[in-house]
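Might I ask for a little of your time on a matter of protein folding? The record follows directly beneath this note:
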Amino acid sequence: MPEEKRLVGAAKLGDKSAFEELVRRYEKKIYNMGLRYTGSEQDALDVCQEVFLRIYRFIPQFNEASSFSTWCYRIAVNVCKDVVSRRRSYMETSFDMYDDEDEAYELEVADMRFDPADAAERKELVEAIRQGIRMLGHDHRQIVIMRDINGMTYEEISRCLNIEEGTVKSRLARAREKLRVFLCETGNFYASKQSKELERGSR
């Protein structure tokens, strides 16, 4: 985008207000990525701080032939890997998902706040999803977080991880299938609407 390119150019020349605007635009996404990887708010804040310190340090060397967002995400992925390798934290997950057309949708769970029995089942489902995400191998977990939780495009993921888009799609399909099987086997994936959505996303 022209405005972002202008900000990047100014930041490379030492314009602090331009850099601050770039931070404002990306800090929430970087924080969310750190939170999903580490499961810790404090670790997510540490990830944010480290990511933007690295960006500030290396932005004069940034090659504008690639997109600034991809560069940011690549740095964030590397920082998250460093944090996760030091701290084996529990991961959080959300119900925000993205289909193969980049359309956002939710794994719908009915409002069960006023039915204690249903609320207990809903809590069990949420915990099962968390467990399912945790049981995925690093490569598959990473893809699910980047695509289904952070909503990154296949192209962005491909560039961040330096792998082909076809590899991204195949890893994502396997990860979603493993998660679906895990939820079915634990008896926590029973709503027909949810099943259709996840099956549609795994294709």
